[in-house]
Every structure is written in C-alpha cells, then in structure tokens.
C-alpha cells in the first residue's frame, strides 16, 4: 500500500497503474497484509477473550456408555446456571446417559466455579472435562426457546454415543419437577449464620422480597415499581404468617439505595426490616433456611426464581409477567406455565384504575 502512495506522481499514466497493480497483487506481502487485516477485523469483532475456546477435549470414543452434554449460556449468572445444570442432569437420567460438563472457555470455568461454590452436590453429578466439545461430536437441536419446555423423550431415538444439545437456558421447572428435595440437599452447608439477618422460627415469620433492577432497567426486562412492590407486600402480609408473633422482612437485590429507601418507606417498624448485603450464593442459602415466603418482583429474574424455589416455606408470589411490558414476551419464547410452578401465586394490579395488588387469575 505504501508503494502505491509513493507512485502517485506517475498515476496520470494508466499503464503504470495497471503494471503496478499487477505487481502488487503478485506480492506475498500484499496478501499477508490483507489476511492479517481480515483476521484483525474478525477477531476484534467477536473476541471477548473469555470466549476464546479452550483446546479440544481429549475423550474416548466407542466406550460402553452413552453420554449427554449441552451448550450453555455460560456468561450469564447463577440463576441461569442452575436452570441449565438441573435440567441437563434430569434429562440425562431420563435418557440413561452420563452427563458431561465441558469447560469450553473462561465463562464455563467461572460457571463451574460459581456453581460448585453454591451447590457442589449438583456439579458432582457431572463428569467434568476441561476442553471444548470435539468436532467429531454431532450437535443436536433441542430446547430452542429459552423458557418453553420441550419433552426430552424426543431424544430417546438418538443413538449418538455423545449427544450434545444445542439448547441453552432451559428455564422450565418441568425439566426437573421431581428434584426439588434433591437439589436442596445438594446445596452447601452455610459457613456463617448470615450475621445480622433474622432467623425464621416458631415465633418469627420471615418475608423475603427480591428486587432486581440494575441491568434489567437497561435491557428491557420488567422491573417492578415501588408502588407495586409495596402493595404486593401488603397483599402477601394479609395472606400469610398471621400466627406468629414477629414479622420480619428482608430485601434482596442489586440496588442497595433503592432497597434502603424502600425499607424505610414501606415497613412501619424498620427494626424488623433488613437489606441483605450478602453474596448471591449466600442469599440462596439464607432462603433455604429462613424465607417463609418469597415475593419475586421482577417477573423474569431467574435469581428471584431460585430464591423462591429453594425457600424454606416453598410459598412464592410473583409479578404476573402477562401484565408487564417485559421484552421476553415479544420474542414468543416464554410460556408462563412452563416457567412458573403451578403452586406459585401470580400478582397484578386489580384494575387499570385500581392500584391495589391482588391475585392474578388468568
Ligand atoms: C482448563 O484448561 C485451561 C487451559 O486449557 C487452564 O487454563 C485451566 O486452568 C484448566 N481448568 C481446570 C479447572 O483444570
Ligand atoms: C433508612 O433509615 C435508616 C435508619 O433507620 C437510616 O440510617 C438510613 O439512612 C435511611 N435510608 C434512607 C435511604 O432514607
Ligand atoms: C380495588 O381492588 C381491590 C382488590 O380486588 C378491592 O378490594 C377494592 O375494593 C378495589 N377498590 C376500588 C376502589 O374499586
């Protein structure tokens, strides 16, 4: 390219231009520059260094067993990891296959670590192999919509020794409907007593309110407003826990100043209301031991979902997504009956000009 620029005084003569173009095209340097430019453009376009694949996994073929593995949305967070791993484990049992977790890149490595840190018993069910899925393994389409159940029995016909599913997210309780107790047992034993947070007991009833805001506000996922949250808490309080002497409320989420001011404005006696400052993993362990009821305010927070699913009381209220403008509804990938367990209670405003939260019936 430099050569061409230096040539410019002579370019009034067409002959020279043609001759030089020919010469340039023959030059290996020219082609190296082109290839390198394309490579750079390509790599700066896709490369998040955490997505650079690890070397191909070394595995044996023609063994006496059959295996199953899946694609994962590994860069997502804990709530997503739990859906994916619980579902793939359960599917592996339906199909009588050994579940494999391939550590395909840095995100998978983090997913493996974070999951192990919360629920080691779940990860222990997998054969963990450090490396990318070998090309020789065929990719099979399954579960193509994030939040709609596909019946795994369609995979029974598949005879591949290594069945690798292309799906991600697996956000449906139906995949692991029989596994709640087992999953609770897989959780690690907490190393602390959650310090300042209240303990659920015969005399103390703990209401846990999960509020996801942060990134949800930016990406178009539903976020409940303060009035809706307050009114939901009133509704739930009327339904639950009147038999116990003390009522305590704990707020969980990612926006501490919002929760702090909400706490001061919604709970009459703020002595009995708390904002958790624990890690996400400890919040889930706390829920297992102490949440008598859980209110999920951001309709499609998978973390809120797991707080509810693993909670002590197994009594859950959630914002009915049908009455929100959540972006996932437009994708057509979300099926309410598949996502929310049937014994959970959906909430909505009583009417367009009645801002009292009540049970949603349809
Ligand atoms: C997996 O392999 C990568 C390199 O390929 C290495 O950096 C990483 O530490 C390994 N992880 C585990 C858990 O062995
Ligand atoms: C909430 O109340 C506590 C004391 O009860 C106070 O320390 C805190 O600053 C208040 N927070 C807000 C956001 O008003
Ligand atoms: C608003 O809805 C609630 C719950 O259904 C009901 O109890 C209340 O009477 C309604 N208020 C008005 C003003 O209609």
UniProtKB/TrEMBL annotation:
UniProt keyword annotations, A-Z: Glycosyltransferase, Membrane, Transferase, Transmembrane, Transmembrane helix
The protein, known as: L-Fucosyltransferase
Lineage: superkingdom: Eukaryota
GO biological process: carbohydrate metabolic process
Spans traversing the lipid bilayer: 29-46
InterPro entries to which the protein is assigned, alphabetical: Alpha-1-2_FucT (IPR052501), Glyco_trans_11 (IPR002516)
Annotated organism of origin: Caenorhabditis briggsae
Assigned GO CC terms: membrane
A GO MF term: galactoside 2-alpha-L-fucosyltransferase activity
């Amino acid at each position: 390219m430099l050569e061409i620029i230096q040539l410019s005084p002579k370019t009034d003569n067409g002959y020279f231009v043609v001759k030089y173009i020919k010469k340039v095209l023959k030059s290996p340097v020219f082609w190296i520059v082109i290839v390198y430019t394309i490579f750079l453009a390509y790599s700066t376009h896709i490369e998040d260094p955490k997505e650079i694949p690890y070397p191909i996994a070394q595995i044996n073929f023609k063994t006496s067993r059959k295996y199953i593995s899946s694609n994962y949305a590994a860069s997502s967070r804990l709530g997503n990891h739990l859906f994916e791993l619980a579902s793939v484990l359960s599917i592996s049992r339906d199909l009588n296959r050994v579940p494999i977790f391939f550590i395909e890149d840095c995100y998978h490595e983090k997913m493996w670590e974070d999951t192990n840190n919360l629920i080691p018993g779940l990860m222990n069910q997998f054969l963990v192999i450090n490396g990318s899925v070998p090309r020789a393994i065929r990719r099979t389409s399954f579960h193509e919509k994030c939040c709609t159940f596909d019946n795994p029995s369609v995979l029974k016909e598949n005879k591949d020794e290594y069945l690798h599913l292309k799906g991600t997210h697996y956000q449906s309780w139906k995949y692991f409907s029989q596994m709640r107790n087992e999953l609770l047992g897989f959780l690690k034993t907490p190393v602390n007593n959650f310090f300042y947070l209240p303990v659920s007991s015969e005399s103390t009833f703990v209401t846990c309110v999960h509020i996801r805001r942060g990134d949800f506000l930016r990406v178009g996922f539903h976020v409940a407003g303060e009035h809706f949250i307050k009114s939901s808490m009133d509704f739930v309080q009327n339904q639950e826990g009147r038999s116990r002497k003390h009522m305590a409320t704990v707020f969980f989420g990612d926006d501490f100043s919002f929760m702090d001011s909400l706490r001061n404005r919604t709970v009459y006696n703020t002595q009995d209301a708390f904002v958790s400052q624990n890690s996400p993993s400890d919040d889930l362990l706390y829920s297992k031991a102490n949440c008598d009821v859980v209110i999920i305010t951001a309709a499609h927070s998978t973390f809120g979902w797991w707080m509810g699913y693993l909670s002590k009381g197994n009594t859950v209220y959630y914002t009915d997504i049908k009455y929100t403008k959540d972006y996932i509804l437009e994708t057509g990938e979300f099926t309410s009956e598949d996502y929310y367990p049937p014994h959970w209670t959906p909430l909505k405003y009583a009417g367009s000009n009645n801002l009292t939260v009540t049970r949603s019936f349809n």
